[in-house]
Structures are given as C-alpha cells and as structure tokens.
C-alpha cells in the first residue's frame, strides 16, 4: 500500500476513519479482501507472492497497514514487509509490544512505514526513522516517506479528510472520492524531484494509472464509538485504472467482539 489517510478520535461518531490505496504492479498475484481461512478473525487482502498483506482488520478491532519507504537501493535478500501486517494481526500483542519486538530486527527489511492499532491505541514506526510514535487525536497522512511528509498528494488528502470529518455523517463514497483523485502534481510528487521526473509525476496522484503499475485497490475502514465496524474495498484491474467506474467491491460490517473495558 502506498497511500494512507486516517483520523483518530476527531469525529463525535467515530473512533477511527481510514482511507487507503494499494499501489502495485498489475501482474503481482493478489487475493481481494476476505476472511482468512487460516485465521477467521482476520479480514484482509493477500499478497500471493509473499503471503502477507498491505492492510487488514480483525474481528476484535485490531488493524494495521504498511507502506514502502521510497529509496533507490533495495536489499536483494529481505523479509517481505507485508508479513509485518500479517504477524501483527495474528498476534495478541499490544501495538507497543509488537513494535518493541520488531525494532531490533527492523534492518532486515527494506524501508517501511508501519501503523498498528486497536480500538483504543495506535502506533507508527518506520525502520528509516527508528522511533515508535504513539498516535493520539488527529488527522494523519502517510505515503512512501515518513508520517505526514508534505508531498502534494498527502497534503491534499489530509485536507480532504479534514473537510469530510467536519460533516455530520461522513460516508465511504466521500472517502473513496479522496482516494480516486487522479490529478498529478506538475513538478512531481516529492519536494526534491527524482531523476525520472515522468515516473515521479505518475506517482504524484492519489490514484495512480500507469501502464504496468498503478492503484490496485482502495480500502475504507470506519469504526464507530459503539465499536460497529465497516470495512469496504474496491478492487481495480489494470484496464479499470483507466476507467474510474470499473471496479469490484466487497463490504464487511460487524461489531468488534472485545470492546475495551
């Protein structure tokens, strides 16, 4: 996943609102959002190449997401970053415990940003910054650099989410509209443009529509104060990336079954 916006404790009706895009090569095999047979408490997509996932939720209200950290040099031998999300969702550790165990081994992965949470706690960690940051009330944006780095699509998306949570009844369609923004930044995505400005410009929109690489899916998570949870994913084909109306959709609605004391 390459783009994530989330609001923690900023709307009177919602504990958490998350809107996220997963960007990947179209030929990477993937299973869409579903209940995992190997652990029915997990609802997530699956990367069939490495066995992990980019975003997921459990029936207890645990949630996690990972994005890659943009860098030119990658390790040839590395652990899949999607395994981090899978392992957190499979565990019963608190976010702090999980990050505490991960931190000594974080260099075994290429650059990543990881957000792990429960109904009442959330934590951000990047192995390029190596500082665990508790996330309290606020609106946050994350792409392929550190949390809240002001890349154009991160800044625009955060503003869009802030405008939305001011409304009495934010809905998933409005959140998907933020994720479906296809306007590219004229000077590319990052404050200091990369050598390949055309590639950089392609990546600068919230929704990416390349020939071989682009936004594969968009996911919305909304958790109300009474622990009712709605999880919705829209999955796009390569051809669908060039036609905004073409997608398949799946929705799960449930009540988190271990609300906090």
| CA distance, first residue to last residue | 32 Å
What is the CATH architecture term? 4-Layer Sandwich
Tell me what portion of residues adopts beta-strand conformation. 35-45%
Tally the helices: what do you get?
A: 5
Main sheet makeup: 7 strands, antiparallel
Rounded mean pLDDT score:
91
What is the H/E order? EEEEEEHHEEEEHHHEEE
CATH H-level superfamily title: Penicillin V Acylase, Chain A
- The gross shape turns out to be globular
What's the CATH C level?
Alpha Beta
Low-pLDDT segments: none
| Helix proportion range | 10-25%
CATH topology: Penicillin V Acylase, Chain A
Biggest sheet: strand arrangement: 3-4-5-6-7-8-9
Provide the number of structural domains: 1
**Topology, number of strands:** 13
Structural class: alpha+beta
| CA gyration radius, whole angstroms | 17 Å
Q: What would you call the quaternary organization?
A: single chain
